[in-house]
Amino acid sequence: MRQLRFAVAAVAATIFGLASTAQAADPIPVGVSLTQSPPGSVVQGTEVKHGIDIMTKMLNDKGGVLGRPIKILYEDDQGIPEKGRAAVEKLITTNHVVAITGSHQSSVCLAELEVVHRYKVPYIDTNCWSDDIRTKGYPEVFNPANYNTRVATAMAETIAAMKIKSIVAIAENTDYGIGQAKVLGKLLAEHSPNIKYKYITIDRAGKDFTPTVLALRANQPDMIANMALPPAAYIMMNQLYQQGVAPSKKTWFYDGGGISDYPDFWQNVKDAGKYMISFGLYHPGMPMPELGKQVAATYEKEFKHEPNRLTFQAADSVLLIAQAIEMAKSTDHAAIIHALQTGTFKGVRGEFKFSEKPGITYQQWADIPYVTYQITAVNQPLAKTTLVQAPGQPIDVSKLERPTH
Questions:
Q1: CA distance 258 to 337
Q2: CA triple 369-385-302, angle to 5 deg
């Protein structure tokens, strides 16, 4: 009888051991909400997906996290806040994901973070710039992406250095567009009160902005600043160029939306992109950690063109979740959040720690690196553009080339 008990115990131990091994090898589910169909920015969603897939494969090829592979579960939010909210709800309650990432449009992020806050699930903001996301102060939300005040500050400094006297911002009618336009206006009023500034809004789903463009042609400012995403931004750029407004000898065109490194940029804007000045979060001329170089090389090999900022931001989103799980030695939501709050992270774009300061930099990579560059030829590769401001350096406006027409 005693031998039988020992045998049963041995079998039970073996079964338990096998079950534990199987459990340990179960994939770690990570939820991704992004835009894969209109009316949202599909080009952004596509690039985010590329970056996530590249980093996930790199991690899994090295054994995954805690000996378990990462499994990405995608949901299409269509760039619509209600769709994003539903997507995140499904990923949390049905798929039981350990974290959420991928979102790249501020209005969608603002809807989604209410859901993750209710369920207390960690949320990595991939590319939502609205300051309102940070000022919510939700402990579940982390921001390794850019933010409106960061880009507006960079733009205000550039505008002042160029001695611009009048500027009109064209902003899409979203939390991102209007938010960035308002912050830029506030900063210019504080630091360059003599600059005439106003912003106008366009419908992000619009197809024709002729009335807006003709009004600008009748009273051309020194600079037009873009705060809109494709496809609206592309349509607006072409109409500004066709009407001789900008870029022109009279009017500079300054992109604050980071659209010039999208893979479909040149096929959509052609001559309208020449002489454009751009705020950027990636340029081949900026320093990049070895891991970032590996991501870039993988992207170029697979897609046959240069990577862009979204590639690196998306790769970092997954990497941060993986590093936080490793630090916590757990996939528990609270443990991951604590690791994100306290850890120092080595991402594909550099090393950083999330800020604890309340407000626009709450749980934000506060000093995220950026560049300013100018396009000087049609179909110009990013590597060939003129870098007029490297990360952490003052802008050199003497490098800017003025349009001749």
A1: 29
A2: 80
Which residues 6+ apart lie within 8 Å of 294 measured at CB? 58
Q: What is the dihedral of CA 251, 254, 257, 263, to 10 degrees?
A: 90
Q: Where are the alpha helices (DSSP H) in 94-143?
A: 106-119, 131-135
DSSP 8-class letter at 168: E
Q: Kind of pairing, strands 223-227 and 252-255?
A: parallel
Domains for the chain: give ranges and CATH numbers: 22-146+288-353 (3.40.50.2300), 149-280+375-399 (3.40.50.2300)
Can you state the percent helix, strand and coil of the chain, rounding each to 5?
45, 15, 40
pTM reported for the whole predicted model: 0.86
Query: What are the distances in angstroms from CA 95 to CA 30, 85, 115, 124, 330?
Result: 9, 15, 15, 17, 18
CA proximity to 265, closest of 301, 304, 237, 243: 237
Q: How do residues 167-224 score in pLDDT, each as one tens digit?
A: 999 999 999 999 999 999 999 999 999 999 999 999 999 999 999 999 999 999 999 9
